[in-house]
Amino acid sequence: MSEVFTKIMARNIFYGGSLFFFLLFLGLTFDTVQSSHKRDHRENITEKVALGKKVWEDNNCIGCHTLLGEGAYFAPELGNVYKRFGNSTAAIMAFIKTRPKEGIPGRRSMPQFNLSDEELEAVAEFLKWTSEIDTNNWPPNIKG
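RESULT FIELD:
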């Protein structure tokens, strides 16, 4: 091999590398598409889960909480709150009903949204539904 790096050599490296990474991209895309149907969770959406999502959005819960790593980091992650509360929607509903807990210095408080029992149950069902999504073990710990 010569000591000189020619334009032809540079072009071959560019085209070869581009082809390699394009094929790698196609392969990874194909793999993602093939495996995504295994993790599809949409068939489990009920009217109650949809109402819970609407209540979640209407009250801007994502403005304080994260859900599966997305949102604000002011309050705890809620993607696994159903598991944290012992797999109980009743416990989630009771927790939301008893907010705010004032008088604890240095602690953030969740406001009282005065949700109806139907809305509370729907939010709890929505959080249960999100806890059942295959997130590849995210968040990494049960505390969120």
